[in-house]
Amino acid sequence: MPTLLVTGAAGFIGSNFVRMLIGRCEPVKLVAFDKLTYAGNLANLKDLLESAGKDRLVFVKGDICDADAVSRVFDEHKVTQVIHFAAESHVDRSILGSGPFIQTNVVGTQVLLDVAKAKGVERFLQVGTDEVYGTLPEDKPEEKFTEQTPLAPNSPYSASKAAADCLVRSYFHTFHLPVLITRCSNNYGPYHFPEKLIPLFVTNLMEGKKVPLYGDGLNVRDWLYVEDHCEALWAVLNKGTPGEVYNIGGNNEITNRKITEVILTEMGADWDKSVQYVKDRPGHDRRYAIDAAKIKRELGWEPKRRFEEAIKTTIQWYRDHEHWWRAIKSGEYLKYYETQYAGR
Ligand SMILES: NC(=O)c1ccc[n+]([C@@H]2O[C@H](COP(=O)([O-])OP(=O)(O)OC[C@H]3O[C@@H](n4cnc5c(N)ncnc54)[C@H](O)[C@@H]3O)[C@@H](O)[C@H]2O)c1
Asked: Count of domains in the chain?
């Protein structure tokens, strides 16, 4: 049975990925490795750690930038494969300060690659983002990001992720490390940290607060339900061709204004009383859209969930898990929120 190191397993997508594999009883041992930064939350894995058994899932607290700690976890658990989620992931925070993004997303990825090379892993999947491609024109809806689109990152976050992708690619060409790279659009679903648009808006409304909408609200993102992303990652890990890049997307372009309308309607809130337009994010990319034809053609993956239904499931999850997000929306989070939206 392979042993899969899951970096960033206590975050949003990493924990959903672990949950999916445990739920399906996939024949793999999972080693969840996470530094537990502000975004990492052991509560996301607690029930799984209690129920799965140590032969199926273990948690190790550690930093991917710490080569000794990473090397130890490979040896102790006889790691054979890696799926690399761990990252600083929030664009707004990268604008407030890019240092931690370079450290974790670039240096951390390099450390992980070196250890994976030294130990001779069978697969190394770099979980990437469509934001590395930059922005698309609004008036050319036929234009989408393909795997051939040149990298043109516009935020410190996307620049650090692009640098990581380039490093991963170089370890394939130079050292023949069997790497795979995915680039996915915006995810939504359970366990999403409530600084990101959908969980922020839903939980603000539940708290009786306004929702901060950037600029004119017409930035376009392609939204994909997190479990669809996790299924795509599992397909790439098992069936992808080493050295290849796979775009992952929902074929579901929506403006931030439309997302806001959907959330307000679902939660019975009024636009004028609930929406506060705030000064736009500096360098805000206007439009992302993914051409996911390659992964469909080569690996048979396509999204299964329709946005209209999955957004309702997501909102209901936040209604049912108030204790989860209220515990996060205190302390450090409040300081960040005040810094981020002060004077906007
Ligand atoms: N959320 C999205 O919509 C989206 C879309 C495409 C790609 N991605 C990528 O997917 C990955 C996961 O995203 P997410 O939204 O789950 O992020 P997240 O911020 O929710 O989780 C990141 C996790 O990484 C951990 N981590 C951070 N620094 C670490 C370090 N130095 N060592 C070990 N662990 C560390 C954190 O504690 C946290 O648990 C990221 O690489 C991100 O770039 C995210």
From this structure: 1
